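Hi P.,

Sorry for the delay on this. The queue was packed all week, but I finally got your sequence through. Input first:
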Amino acid sequence: MRYLGSNETATDGIDEKADKTRMAGGIRKLQGLYIAKVIDITDDRYEGFMNVEILGEGYKGDVDSLEGRKEYARVRRSSPYGGSIQFEGFTNTYGFCSHPPNPGSQVLVAFAINSDVGICIGVLPDVTRNASYPTQPAARTDTEPNSVGPTYDPSPNNKTVNNLRPRANPDRIRRENSDFKDQVNNCEIGETGTGIDSIRGLSSSSARRESPTQVFGFNTPGGHQFVMDDGTKATGDRCINPDPDRQEGLSKLVRLRSAGGAQFLIHDGPGMIYISDQAGSTWIQMSSDGKIDIYAGNDISMHTEANFNLHCKDNFNVEADAINFKARGTDGIKIESSTGEFNLHANKDIKLTSDLNGHIKASGFVRVTAAMIDLNGPEATAADKTTANNHTLNKTVKESIVGRVPEKEPWGGHSDSGPDAKILPQVADPNPTQVVKDIQMDDLTQDACTGELPSGEDLLKDVTNPRGDRPNDADDQTPLDQRFGQGRVANSNNELGPNGRQGPR
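Then the structure:
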């Protein structure tokens, strides 16, 4: 746009000239803050520059061609942290790095007076489409109405029913002809065996779980995630929940999880630290009751160049198909039973061989009993056998002399207790008039909800305003979207707004 106005700030006598702070070469320069839409994120200088469409500025170029996309405003991304130290001959640069917002995302950009290149200072989340960060929240899925799992945000063109959300399945995206099909934000918890585990697998950590959110963190387009969750809050004067009856204090955790499902979890609810690989074939859990459980689907190997020390206050139990011991040093093997008996039992032969002398010494009697022997006295006492334990909660190892046998997830031996193992908080539906009840984990078997879903009529009825008991609030006739602020509720008819967005226009 060409500059057509007068220069109100110029020195007297030259007001007919263009203000160079507001235009360059007769073309009006952008100044101030603008809402924009990302058009292109490729940068041949590898410095993070983007091209954006300033909303309301009009057509600039063909978005289907790289040349056309470069016609739009050029901006650089600001960073929350970083810097550089210049030394003689080299530079030490440090800071924060992330993938830029994908094309179609709305951003806030600023144009300074002294630059024709804008600065992207923030991203504006889509209205009602903010559930999928910093992780995919668990909810009932739209493809399997009785199934619960990690989910995406529904499309703005689809109206949700009963808060059914699209399952976070990478195949839903990879089958599409999309330039971003490899940037799949999902969590493969099913591969780890924790698909219905509300502690180690399923997550409620989402920006839409309550308002204001108690969840902090970030995730990548490819699905890696870091979450710090301060836990659920009960509905009250300073918090709104999709489930007005929600229990406070659930989901207090720190979680680092890869897109493939490997994770490091610190959970304050049950009091445990949990580490697992992508397939659930190896995992470690440290519990606040002092237990450490380790499972390996293959070998566990340890090597020390010095001593390996193991001290047990109670029993030391070992069960295996074969047990081998070998001492290489001159001290040999020493086994002592300091206060009790020493029992040795074999289902077949017992063989003792020495390349030198053999010694048996007893302070009392030595009795030997056999079918035939040269010296046969009173019958010898049989050795005691080990006692087996029944493991009814295990899938494969049902009996062992070992009191606790971890298995591949899902393992029934986890001593989970408390509400975190029983309740899975849900995220708010894009339609705020829909009732959303938290999921009772006792209703789940395998990967499905066996409990009967509430009727559509019950789920679609209006939500009782959780702030309705505040003084003078019941008589307030102000429209809801003005009382709670833009973005709190959609328009009354739940219709799609411009650009397929749902909510206030």
